[in-house]
Write a structure and sequence with these properties.
Blueprint lengths: L2 E8 L5 E2 L15 E8 L2 H10 L15 E2 L4 H7 L3 E2 L3 E5 L6 H14 L4 E5 L4 H11 L7 E4 L3 H10 L4 E5 L16 H18 L2 E6 L12 H5 L2 E6 L6 E9 L6 E8 L2 E4 L3 H5 L10 E8 L2 E13 L7 E4 L3 H14 L7 E7 L11 H13 L7 E3 L2 E2 L5 E2 L4 H10 L4 E5 L5 H4 L4 E5 L2 H7 L1
Parallel strand pairs: 6-10, 6-11, 7-8, 7-9, 9-10, 15-19, 17-18, 19-22, 22-23
Antiparallel strand pairs: 1-2, 1-3, 4-5, 11-12, 12-13, 13-14, 15-16, 16-18, 20-21
Helix pairs in contact: 5-6, 9-10
């Protein structure tokens, strides 16, 4: 028979320990360990199960074409890799009020209109509350099945008997398995519920979307293994009080990772943004120092972003450095290279660097744009409005080549930019064929002299 075992789990990251700890060794959070009891199976049953599994030759395995279901939302289909894959388990995470339930309800409305059977399971809202939210987003032309229950046994039975091709679980933290001790949302409960949903998705060939709350660090609440168990992980980014939303795919077994979909929040729900570059550059100041336009790659899409910098003389013994949407340490590194290799005295100035529009980037091709924006603000000289900048900066002050240069240059050309500053090593015949002036640079000092 199975035996009970007492363990402690970190509620932030899911780290398991045999005893209580004040600080989690994995995520360094304080006072996050909670006591739970888990059942451990006997060794005999586990051995019998392992003996029943036999290896299979890869030459004997037959593959089938992936069956994808279009959601009717082009940006969501892009992030999913072309549509919903039958039998997949997709995790959608984000801050409260960011739009997780909204976009899934819009997806359900589009799917039912196309004749796809959908089951919407909610452990947080009543049927009347879901109906009110659905009417605000738009009327349903066809029927959609609702289930307001958090008992995983009942949910599994309904999913097994239904003929739904798509199931939405809102949210994973409210589902409860009676056989497992602990309240809903605990590490053990979330892990067990996800494992059962994965089994249901594969057995019934049903695509299941689960909504997950996030912690204060921005990761999905529950064990880190939750992200490894599912097929795809989608994160909503952006300010909940603003209208701008970015849906980013950080994991996708059926498509490219780091793909993004851009939306705006309106009173009728989320609306797609067909041209993100135009939206990001909307309202860009003209003739103002400290503003630079960079071309970054998000998944398979090139997007132009405005990067702003403000450099002012400090009133403190230690200058203040602040960055929004960019890695703080990366900004400090670039400023150190500017001081050493470009002879710019930045030690007595505060520096504030931000990506306009609320985007977050980690593309090293934005390095040169950051340096040019900082230099522009410090010198009080504006960068030409029709100039875009790409390039990675090395510690020796060299400008290193970047990837997908042709795609970045095409986006700048399409948006009406006449000049592109880029690494000399990236200039080839394909880029030169574009109707845009290319300025190749090999060092930071050379790049700053051009602007």
């Amino acid at each position: 028979m199975a035996k009970e075992k007492q363990v402690f789990f970190c509620t932030e990251c899911g780290f398991e320990s045999a005893k209580w700890l004040g600080q989690c060794p994995a995520c360094k959070a304080w006072n996050t360990f909670s006591e739970e009891r888990i059942k451990v199976s006997a060794k005999g049953s586990a051995k019998a199960l392992r003996d029943a599994v036999k290896p299979t030759s890869i030459l004997d395995v037959k593959t089938a074409d992936e069956t994808r279901i279009k959601t009717g939302i082009a940006e969501l289909d892009r992030v999913l890799g072309g549509g919903i894959v039958c039998g997949s388990l997709v995790l959608v995470g984000g801050d409260p009020g960011i739009g997780k339930s909204t976009i899934l309800l819009q997806m359900c409305r589009n799917l039912t209109a196309l004749g796809t059977e959908v089951l919407y399971v909610s452990g947080e809202e009543s049927a009347s509350q879901i109906k009110m939210r659905a009417e605000r987003l738009g009327s349903f032309d066809r029927d959609m099945t609702l289930l307001c229950d958090n008992d995983m046994a009942n949910v599994s039975e309904v999913i097994g008997k239904s003929h739904a091709s798509v199931v939405v679980i809102d949210s994973i933290q409210t589902m409860l398995v009676d056989e497992i001790g602990g309240a809903p949302g605990t590490v053990t409960q979330v892990r067990e519920v996800t494992a059962r949903l994965m089994q249901l998705a594969k057995q019934n060939n049903t695509a299941i979307f689960i909504v997950g709350h996030v912690t204060k660090e921005g990761t999905v609440a529950g064990p880190r293994t939750l992200e490894h168990m599912v097929d795809s992980v989608l994160y909503f980014e952006g300010d909940a009080s603003g209208s701008f939303r970015v849906l980013r795919g950080v994991k996708n077994r059926f498509g490219s990772t780091n793909e993004v979909g851009v939306f705006t929040m309106t009173e009728r729900g989320l609306e797609e943004v067909d041209n993100p570059s135009s939206m990001m550059l909307n309202g860009r100041p003209k003739g103002v120092s400290g503003s630079a336009v960079i071309s970054t790659i998000e998944g398979t899409r090139a997007i132009l972003l405005e990067l702003q910098a403000l450099v002012t003389q400090t009133n403190f013994n230690m200058p203040r450095r602040t960055s929004v949407g960019i890695d703080y340490n990366r900004v400090n590194l670039i400023m150190a290279v500017m001081e050493k290799r470009a002879n710019m005295n930045l030690w007595g100035f505060d520096a504030y660097v931000s990506i306009a529009g609320g985007m977050r980037i980690s593309d090293p091709a934005a390095d040169l744009g950051i340096a040019c924006a900082i230099a522009s603000s410090m010198k009080g000289k504006a960068i030409p409005e029709d100039t875009a900048i790409i390039g990675e900066i090395g510690l020796a002050g060299e400008i290193r080549g970047v990837t997908n240069v042709l795609q970045r240059a095409k986006e700048a050309d399409k948006m009406g930019f006449h000049t592109l500053i880029l690494p000399s090593s990236n200039i080839d015949k394909h880029v030169q064929a574009l109707d845009i002036k290319l300025i190749g640079v090999s060092s930071l000092s050379e790049a700053l002299s051009h602007i």
